[in-house]
Amino acid sequence: MGNPVVHFEIHATNRKELKGFYQDLFGWKIKDNNPLGYGLVDTDADKQGIGGGLFESEHAPGVLVYVEVDDPEEYLERIEDMGGEVVVPLTNIPGMVSFAVFQDPQGNKVGLVKTS
Known about the structure:
This protein is of the alpha+beta class. It contains 2 helices and 8 strands; from the N terminus they run E-H-E-E-E-E-H-E-E-E.
């Protein structure tokens, strides 16, 4: 089995502004009533495409894609061996997901994710 892209994340300096923009533009449903204020994006695309998130960050603008892997720690070691850099170390959100973010040798940031 390959490693599919399973999630996207749009970074915003003003999450509420971009929430309205994407809801009005594409009709996405964005729910951010959680303790992290993370906007969960439902594209309502009838099982096509992937869902995503809207994240407020001082490092905006930017878009990340998350690739599903079976062993994020193993991939992070390989990434560093291959000239990449770990930007966000492996982080576990209990009962939900484990994720990390790396930068490839040319500066692109990509996420890794493993669902619990």
